DNA sequence: CCGGAAGTTGCAAAGGATTACATTTGTTGC
DNA sequence: GCAACAAATGTAATCCTTTGCAACTTCCGG
């Protein structure tokens, strides 16, 4: 069931059928109609392998992500896919599972499929994988790399802006004892967030004392652990900003198990603004990071690369604070607001 | 940079290089080594389009799912991908977004890519899509279809067993006023769950009274709404089983907003056992549905189809109850257990 | 040292679409 | 009604691998 069968049925050449398939303008409307009828009647399905072999385009883009199970990524994938779909492009993704080896492997697999673009949304890279990319001229876009890599565009998040909003919000509520729950130091994205928090504190003039940073794992379990550590202190902080929502949820749980009430005893702020924030009790105040915006910038960056258009090499995304019920004036609801 | 370049560099023919690439046994070890060296030195990446065009195999399998954002699916995808990866097979998926049109479209796209197998994990099918599948001999496996389709294997979940466990658990705790929160009647999976609940009640001899079924939307918002409805009743049920976890989380939220305590005032059971169950307060008792098992059965069903092996046409998965903190003896913790 | 089997390798024909270029058909102005 | 040009269509080469078959080696027993 190939294009030849269709051509015969429609009484044209394969070239014409191909033109109809590719919506080429140089086909008479009547002819195109005949071809389309033949396609429908024969239930013809074009062979994508042949198409991309010949044309050099695969109409497929690849996403490299850390872990589909982190709700951040499905959101991103969904938006990316929907956008790509509007342009007739399919999407496939590879889970790196935070492993450099799986990253290299993923890059290889995507290149073998001849994808028309790769968005790298994970922060565990590998020299080998990057070199592989460089050897091709496949468009690539990175997310949140601490430094520009191989002259590829890099979409970054202005973490400092985000944390400054958070710290300001807490100060308004009268908090001065503000701590930070960081992610694993091996993750470059976690490290960047930690540094940004410190910078934000400095910018707000809150760095008189020793910076107050706990270390977590970006998972719920880690948050739970830190909650215990936190509340067994003689003089715990009155507010905690977490490097991501998962850990904030863990803190919430840990607090509840210890009988500590949130936000009365501790104001809590997460990062990412996953749907989880609204599912949890009390609903979590969080820094919203728009997946739609990331997806859209990534997609257009890749499209630009495809069409030899100039690539924007810097693109900054601003998080914004979404206030819910996990933050309150210091000292419980009886506390007063600070001007 | 094609196979010919490698062949020349290694001083062999393209056929030999191809054999090395495909791990064919009929190549002398020394030759294979020379070829591998050449491949590495040239940074050669085989062209998958050409490979699958010629061989008829794509080493790609497709997943059709409803919505990546429902945490049920990422789990499934992850397991499926990991399993497929061990067999050198890549995975791509299509979101149907619960739309029949997107389903048809998804099927078409997967067929165009020449996938070696399609797992249909969604329940909005379309005649058109199914017909497209039938026209090919691509292996297909379904999940939870109410009836066998086109002689394709169908993996089903024994919902009745699951709900019987749930009802038994509640009876042990002394509950007799047990209600059910159903999903949208348009979703066949929701309908099947509702029917199974009623069957389970019958099996437990709990069907003396009128069945007590609320209607939801399988989302958090729907659960929240039903909570309001529920607690404004004169004599509300003492236990509620939900068709999925998302709605149970919504009920939890709604209850909390109304100041109703769970499990004291209402025992709550969800379905699926998403990670959400542990993130939420109180942790949700839920019926665990193993994504790993589903993924594994689906994958092997497709593999079987690939190798012209006999296909198992029925495969049943048993959910099991995971008891957490959202269920308690009737009448609050002071209630007595019924023997 | 030969015949034949078994093991390696090469030759060349697919596989199904796209596309540059050639050719045919249609249109327009006069 | 015809030249000249534009539009539509066809021809055939090409994309890169895989693989059936043929050809060549190697190895062994006799």
UniProtKB/TrEMBL annotation, chains A, B:
Transmembrane segment boundaries: none
Report whether Transcription shows up as a keyword of the record.
yes
Q: Which InterPro entries match?
A: HTH_LacI (IPR000843), LacI/GalR-like_sensor (IPR046335), Lambda_DNA-bd_dom_sf (IPR010982), Peripla_BP_I (IPR028082)
Per UniProt, residues of the HTH lacI-type domain are: 1-55
Q: Which domain of life is it from?
A: Bacteria
Annotated PROSITE patterns: HTH_LACI_2
Q: Alphabetically list the UniProt keywords.
A: DNA-binding, Transcription, Transcription regulation
List, in alphabetical order, the Gene Ontology terms for molecular function in this entry: DNA-binding transcription factor activity; transcription cis-regulatory region binding
Does the keyword field hold Heme? no
List the Pfam families hit by this protein, alphabetically: LacI (PF00356), Peripla_BP_3 (PF13377)
**Designated name of the protein:** Transcriptional regulator, LacI family
